[in-house]
Amino acid sequence: VGGNLDEGSRDPFDQYLKEDLQGVLVCSGCSLFDQYPDLAQLRMVKWDDRLLSTPSSDYPPHLVPVTETAKYIFLARSLLLIGKHVLLNGPTGVGKTSVLNVATSGMGTIIPVLITPSATASTVRNHLERTLRVNHKGQLVARGDTAVVLLLDDVNMATDSSDQPSHYELLRQLIEYSGVFSQDRLEWREIKHLTVGGISSSDTSLSQIPSRTLRQLCTFTMTHPPEESGKKIVRSLLTNVFTERGFLNEVTELSKPMAAGLVDLLTQAKEAFKRTERTPHYLFSYRDIHRVVLGVSQAVPRTCGSVRTAVLLWVHETTRVICDRLSCAKDKEKFTNMMMDSLRRYFPVGLWKAEIFTSKWPVLFGDFLRPEAQREDRVYENIKDPSQLPVLFAYYTNELYDTNLNVVFFKEACVHLTRILRLLKLRNTPSILVGPKGTGRDLLTRIAATIHEYNYFALEAEKPYTAEGFYTDLVQIYDTAALQGQNIVLLLTDTQLRIKGILEGVVHILYNTSVPNLFTTEEIAQRTSSLSCLTTDGKETPQDMLWAKYLDRVRANMHLVLCMSPGTGFAAKCREFPSLVSCCSINWFIEWPQQALQEIAIHVLTDTEGSIEHLAGDSAAVHQAVINTCSTYAKERGVEVPVNPGYYFEFLNLFAMIYTERKRGLEVKREKVKTGMDKIVKANEAVNEMDDDIHKAAEKAKDSQAEIAKIISEIEVKTVVMSQTKDAVSVKEAYASGKRDAAFKLQQSARADFDEVMPAVKNANKAIGSLSAHDIQELKSYTHTTRAVAQTAEAVMILLREKKPQEWSTARQVMSRPDFIDTLQQFDHDSVTPETIAKLEKIVKDPDFTPDKVGQTGSFACRSLCMWVHSIYNYYWLEKRVGPKREELLHAQEVLNTANSQFAEATTELKAVTEELVRLKTRHEAARNRSETLEEDLTKLKQRLASAESLKIAMDGQAGLWEDELSKIHTDLAQCLKVAFLCAAVLTYGRGLPSEYRAALLKTWEAQCKWASADEFKITDYLANPNTKQEWVLSGLPPDPESVEVACCVTQCWTEKCQRWPLVIDPQGRALSWLTQWLQKVEILEHPKENATPEARKKFYSRLEHCIELGLPCILRKVDSETSLDPYLSPLLQKKYVENPIGSGQYRLQLTPDHTVSYDLDFKLVLHTSEGVPKFTSDVWSVANIIDFTAGPEAVEQQMLSAIIEAQRPELEENLRGNLVSIAGNKKLLTGYEDQVLVEIDACGEDLLGNPVLVKNLTKLRQTAGYVAKQLQDADDARMKIQELREGFRPLAKLVAAVYSMTSKLGVLSPLYHFPVTAITAICTAVMQGASPTTQELLQHLFKHILQSLQPAHKPIFALLIAATKEVVDGTHTHADIDLLYKLPMYARQEESSVHPAWISDDVWRMLRAIEKYDSIGNLARLCNSIMGSSNEWQMWAVDEEKRLAEKPPVDVTGFQRYLLTVCFG
After folding, report:
1. In sequence order, what are the beta bridge partners of 1150?
2. Less CB within 10 Å around the terminal CB: N or C of the chain?
3. 1149: burial class by Cβ within 10 Å (0-12, 13-18, 19+)?
4. How far apart (Å, rounded) are the C-alpha atoms in residues 1131 and 1149?
5. Residue 997, Cβ neighbours under 10 Å: how many?
6. pLDDT (tens digit, 9 = 90+) per residue, 575-628?
7. Which residues contact 1169 (CB under 8 A, 6 or more apart)?
8. What DSSP character marks residue 299?
């Protein structure tokens, strides 16, 4: 009966039972809830006594047996064993799940099911059918036919579909009928031996279990154990840790104070840090104690052996578990005070010092201090010098990564990285890193995983992802952790967690790692089979145990890290899925402090000129000012504008880019102007020297002409001499040629005679050469010679002039000489005398004395000698015949030589004459060229003089203009740092803020940046030139500064400097109208809705790709508050186009992993929403540059003025527009002329006067510029006259603008009240058609039309606003004063109460203080003092309603202020 009572109801129930059971033996001094009946002894026994008799081995190691846990385990197990169904209810963290798991252990097949918000009856039914099998009777039974225990966790989790989720009905069906209805087979399935154990939360925000289901369950409400029990739990756990690890006794004895301090801190945290809508993660339970113990267990005696180190370890682990989840510095400071108080109470003073909480760095422990150590050898130790962590982490990143990550390890980053390293080290400790995007959550996790040498898996943010894809990846991650035994980090961000299927999968991972439907039965069998192969004991293990081991290895090796952004989305997820808080360790990334911001700025702006420390301080101040302004905006408008550290990096990079670009541009322009000035000065100096140069050039030209005449005379003389010499040479050449021919003929005749006999001579010599000594010896051996031998020997002896040639003995004697053959070969043919020939002739003419016949009758030697004799004989007669011819030839040769010599002399003389003539002609040509050059130089000098005069006229006054321009450039260069800084700040941090907040921010920045000059900064002067701004105005943009500033921000988002496309907040349609007119060819698309058909999405993608490829501007409309951006747009929104190939100038954009389109750099994208105050998701803020285009009062007034004049005097507007067009065109031409002058001068080189075309162009440009300037002045004078006429309609425009401003405030009352500027303009135009109404008539007409569309309750408020309009127009009040009407309750909540009269309530007094604080006129500045001093008078006016409405209050007030006071007291 009392098992379901909560903690507050148990004492009254206990008192009632004790009074009713007075006769029963009960234990005194304790509650009946602490006793149980002993049926054997028929008395009540304390649960403590039963606990002492139960062996501790009956409990798992992580569960310390205390009275509360032992009691509920016994009750739950006892009931389940007899077939009763049990429900454990209670707050999070009391151990319900652990108790029920222990109670059901060993009872059969346990089927755990986590009820998520989207769970239905089908979810639970399908899980049961997959887990169980069907037997032959059609029953669902467990494998082995064991009992089935269904454990339902989070039974009362709320759902989106209805107040009574369908799984309640299934639960009742399971309990009452022990079965389910199979939807596949359409038949009833009974579940054999089924018992149900349920777990529910006592959180009242969750759904209530229906009574007809609840009555079937034995319900117990578990409460947090008393502090003493908690201390016992912690002491036991810590003692076990210190004992098992071999710590010193002194350390082990610290278990008691550690346990007491930890439980005390946990209790204080529950009271001090309450869960609210903004802090749903402030949940503290005994699970946190387990996390502290788990952290302490990482230490080893070698590094944490001293008592002091052990205390520091306890401080560190307790701080990590409790303090790291606190979301603001104020709460963290409160926890620090609580920790110091616990240390004073439970630990001796000598073990700790308060300085550890006041030092720059907190207490830190880690196992990464020795990078050279292997992962298994690393030890968890105290980081004694945390200031070295930046260097250590930089070493890790440089050594472990191939590329430079460019990480700034400031203090907070190092602390967070140390915390993440600790979380990844712990087993089965999922973590949530909560912080804005850009705080480095994912990057630090990646670095931590690498330091631990873990695998790392993170989904690509720009990749379209689904729940199915996540589960596919999750299977691989599970296998890596379980089968391969490798540690792996799984990181998920907000982008993925927004997908409900993924988030529910994460919740199941947190619950028990078993994700429903992740594996089929066959896949489970495959993995258990693979796991069985890893066991070494050789025993067969049941599949259920193997699968449990598989999941246990996943829990041990998989480290889940969730990166989430703070805000309503995070709070909603925490409320919807409590396990995100209860099962995860939370590390909250608070705002970066100033010091961290400065360190980052120093790192990023290293290459920037100027004082880096000064710039870093200013950058940090800018960021902090933005945070404060956005906080104010959120309080006043109810719209949160996130400012994450990523914006700070973007601001710094943009500042560096703008500064570099602007400085380079100014320097280039300065050089051009300076070059132009220098060339003009040089040209003027050259004019003074031109007269003397012209005289000298004329003299040189005259001397050159005289020289040419002299050379021509010499040429004529030499020409005659050369002609005569040429004739003589021709005669001598003919004579020599004749002699040459005669000599040649004689030479040919002699050569023919010699050719006739010479072959015979050669043959004879050859025959003689072929004779050998043997041949001669054979011839000598003849004693008797033949006639042929005798003739031959005699002929030879005659020729050799031997005595007695006819005798053979003489021949033999001569032939016996050793040199006989040589004598014959060397015989001189010319030495033969006529006498010798006469003697020889008788023999030679003998017919038988021929070589052939001699050879036949004689020998080979005789034949050869005969041939020799004939050759000598023939040669003699040949010489006789040729001799005269030779003499004649010698004579002819002498004559020829003489002729040739004479011819050579004549030729030499001719050559000399010719060369002299050539030299004269060369001198003539050179002189003529020199003369022409001098003439040309003279002409050029005259032209230069004329050009100089023309240039002097053309550039008259230009030098002065350039001096002014140069002075302005120098000023701009001096202000370049300031301009770049403020421009980057406006472009980065102005997003999402209305104009008045941006203006306030700019003033704050200029005040904070002391280096900035006192000159007023206008971003429009630097981000757009005057011609462009005039084009915008002509395209429909209002000319007020606010509108032009916003237009500058929009157009800057299209440049490469900006990382995001603009998202324009445009409730009045001004931006859409302006962009469509200015961009002209623009494609307007609508963002597809979430329920859009695939065909509609495909059409949208096709049109968008068409714009991207052709470079057409595109406006994407209906990107509203609830819009979830299509993942297809992610790469485009992040501008992730790349050049392909590099250097080609062609770009591509990968929209999906398998789809790429070409990208044109002319493409422009504008996101657009028509909502007035949209509340975008964090994803939209992170990928778009949100720009508020809502018209301010001045812009509305300008628009109204144009509309009124269009209705009353349309010719004025037409003339003004034509005049503006003329001015814009003339200004553009004039600017173009000035730029062209510099371009022409810069391109002409150093010789400015030598370019007549340039001078002509400059003269023409100057004349045209003068004409244009005159037209521009005339047009400007006409514009001023038109403006004077337009100013006559200004009062009406101010009135209508004020009315519009008042009607726009009605949107606070209801989102249905939306009055565009065009609607108000249409009403005014209709009234003014053909009439000129007064101010009062126009006001009444507007009031009448708008009043018709209001609800009755809101009409008086609108009447008040209209009544206040006149005071606004007169300047008595401002729009900010009127805003106080609906901001008053918010301002009042921010005020603190103080002493006030008793007749005034606290709420009213706070409103009065708010009125006093925000009064802009000053007459209510001492309102509260007036009420305190004249309390009775004020009471009489305030309490009496009739008097309050009829009379004025006791102070002087305006009508609007009187109404505010009436509201307060009414």
Report:
1. 1156
2. N
3. buried
4. 7
5. 20
6. 878 888 888 999 998 878 888 888 888 888 877 766 777 888 888 888 888 888
7. 1063, 1064, 1065, 1066, 1117, 1118, 1119, 1120, 1121
8. B
